[in-house]
Specification:
Radius of gyration: 31 Å
Number of strands: 11
Number of helices: 10
Helix content: 55-70%
Order of helices and strands: EEEEEEEEEHHHHHHHHHEEH
Distance between the termini: 34 Å
Strand order of the largest sheet: 7-8-3-2-9
Length: 358
């Protein structure tokens, strides 16, 4: 067999050199570093010229440490070498002319400023880890509290979802009209407890955005306590079923996702559902809430409930329905803000997962 040179791709950080050798099913690997600071590579494998013996040598620009980390896969051989001094190199090899078989590894490539940013982030992460270790008791209590909060909410919304689903299969459409009377107490409990989703970011316990949490909690509580809770005429309408079912369908995936995250556990199917189901469900939930508000407008006009007396106009008052009409506009503005927030969360999540896979 003739001896050939494989394609080699390289990238660097301030402290490491990364080499990727395009050689699949490599066997009889012989990788060494001599006293002249030269790396020697020899192996049998399938490269650009088929099954052959491939070898190359690289004399590095500056001294490197003798330890060599390498990993052979079915597609390539990855080599990691540490520099003696943590600094940026102008080039890889001592000779100025680049070898023909050598090229940049653009999958790993960073320019010097980006590499400095990455190095600084790593240092900050180390400092943060030290700070975290010093706050272990606090973090234990914090994670325990957040785990229990999400567990209780998950159980509450699961009870609502299962109750409504079972009644729907047994009673059919008749179950639409008594949803409030069968599930309202549990929904009251869950939505009162949801106020902690505003308190938690205020106290710095979670990194979730404060305003999206406020919009969601306030919006749902207006519908639950003001529209459904104060108007008996609304409690027997089918729209209650659709609002409650949409809310519980979202939360039975959201709460267990966060619950598992606090014990450093991830279930990929649950992650996918958490970051994809909101795309149809969240607008449908807001649409159902809007229908409920619209249906309540004539009832507030007739009952004059929460109407505001107008001074100077005896017997005249401003109907609460006008406030709800303004609220309708704000509801769809809140929908846009929350959809934008959820989309950014989704992008960050799948971008970070993509980095991990690479």
């Amino acid at each position: 067999m003739q001896i050939l040179t494989p394609h080699v791709y390289w990238a660097q950080r301030h402290g490491e050199i990364f080499l990727r050798v395009e050689l699949s099913d490599a066997k009889n690997l012989d990788i060494s570093l001599n006293q002249n600071n030269t790396l020697h590579f020899r192996a049998l494998g399938h490269g650009a010229k088929g099954d052959n013996e491939y070898k190359f040598s690289l004399e590095f620009l500056e001294p490197v440490r003798p330890e060599i980390d390498h990993k052979s896969t079915q597609r390539q051989v990855d080599i990691k070498i540490r520099k003696q001094r943590v600094r940026w190199w102008d080039r890889l090899t001592l000779q100025e002319k680049k070898p023909l078989f050598l090229a940049p590894d653009f999958d790993r490539w960073l320019d010097e400023s980006d590499a400095e940013t990455e190095l600084q982030a790593q240092e900050e992460q180390k400092i943060s880890k030290i700070n975290v270790e010093s706050r272990v008791p606090y973090l234990g209590l914090k994670k325990g509290y957040l785990f229990m909060y999400n567990l209780v909410q998950f159980l509450g919304f699961s009870w609502i979802f299962v109750n409504m689903t079972v009644r729907l299969f047994i009673l059919g459409q008749d179950s639409f009209y008594d949803t409030f009377h069968t599930t309202a107490d549990m929904m009251y409990f869950c939505q009162i407890l949801a106020v902690f989703e505003v308190v938690n970011p205020l106290l710095g316990l979670v990194k979730t955005g404060l305003y999206p949490a406020m919009i969601q909690v306030a919006g749902r509580n207006v519908v639950l306590f003001v529209i459904f809770g104060c108007l008996e005429e609304m409690q027997s309408r089918s729209i209650v079923f659709f609002v409650f079912y949409a809310w519980s369908s979202i939360e039975i995936f959201r709460y267990p996702f966060y619950m598992l995250a606090y014990i450093d556990t991830e279930w990929q199917l649950l992650t996918w559902l958490r970051y994809n189901l909101w795309i149809p469900l969240y607008p449908l939930a807001v649409l159902a809430e809007a229908v409920a508000v619209i249906q309540s407008l004539p009832i507030f006009d007739d009952t004059r409930l929460f109407s505001l007396p107008l001074p100077g106009f005896r017997g005249r008052s401003l109907s609460f329905s006008y406030t709800l009409q303004i609220y309708l506009v704000l509801m769809f503005l809140g929908l846009f803000i929350n959809l934008r927030h959820l989309y950014k969360q989704r992008q960050r999540r799948f971008r970070s997962r993509k980095r991990k896979t690479h």
